[in-house]
Design brief:
Layout lengths: L1 H30 L4 H31 L7 E3 L1 H18 L2 E6 L7 E3 L1 H17 L5 E9 L3 E8 L27 H11 L3 E7 L3 E9 L2 H5 L21
Parallel strand pairs: 2-4
Antiparallel strand pairs: 1-3, 4-5, 5-7, 6-7
Helix pairs in contact: 1-2, 3-4, 4-5
């Protein structure tokens, strides 16, 4: 499936790239025309360029989802990984008036994981939380340890997810956003489950969403069934008592 997906994406991206280049050249030519027709054409070409970029994003996400990635596991410090991601998303969060808070367990032991691949899953979840707060809000990141597993809570004070959509949220190509590819959350779940972990969520419309990721601590834990999922009915943890 991964090989077929790679070939299909390649065949689509080639003409898409040609289309994108020619649109840019046409835009440069018409940008010199200050007539009403010229300005109208430039606006239309800007729209087409945005759509080609969106299509390229969908193709890239599809390729990442379809290809099975072999994990290269090692000791992974979740706190350091999350700190690095938060530094990466900080400018975008600030631009959207999102206050980022964190409560990271200083005694958290390392887990056995592929840090690069796990990072991709966590970035998807954190970006999803940001997109749920178009008018600003608070993003809370917590780490903690349970019996045989490590836990990451990603909580936002965004719009929330309607109850009738909760069971669909991890389906491939399902998205509540008009501009979404519908692969970010399904890819995140796939990566977490590849690590022997589990992911669950609780959401309330108008109040926010809490994603809970649990990862096993050892090889023995990875060989067992998935880390026990949290109770779905549990409310998101309070945002108070956290550090910025």
């Amino acid at each position: 499936v991964g090989t077929l997906a790679g070939g299909l994406v390649h065949e689509i991206k080639n003409p898409l790239s040609t289309l994108n280049i020619n649109l840019q050249l046409l835009r440069e030519d018409w940008q010199k025309d200050e007539s009403q027709k010229g300005r109208s054409l430039v606006r239309k070409m800007d729209l087409l360029l945005r759509e080609t970029k969106r299509l390229e994003g969908i193709l890239n996400d599809f390729l990442k989802y379809a290809r099975s990635q072999e994990l290269s596991r090692g000791d992974c410090n979740l706190n350091e990984l999350l700190e690095d991601i938060l530094r990466f998303i900080a400018p975008e969060a600030a631009a959207k008036s999102i206050q980022v808070r964190k409560s990271l367990d200083e005694k958290l032991p390392p887990c056995l994981a592929d840090g690069n691949i796990l990072r991709h899953a966590l970035v998807n979840l954190i970006k999803n939380a940001q997109e749920a707060m178009p008018n600003g809000g608070e993003l809370m990141i917590r780490t903690s340890q349970g019996e045989g597993f490590l836990q990451i809570d990603i909580t936002d004070t965004g719009v929330g997810i309607p109850s009738d959509r909760l069971d669909k949220i991890f389906r491939p190509f399902y998205s509540t956003k008009r501009s979404g590819t519908g692969l970010g959350l399904s890819t995140a779940r796939r990566i977490v489950e590849q690590h022997g972990g589990s992911i669950a969520l609780h959401s309330e419309q108008g109040k926010g969403t809490n994603f809970v990721i649990r990862l096993p601590l050892t090889d023995a834990a990875i060989s067992r069934p998935k880390a026990p999922p949290p109770t779905a009915a549990k409310r998101p943890p309070a945002l108070a008592h956290a550090t910025s």
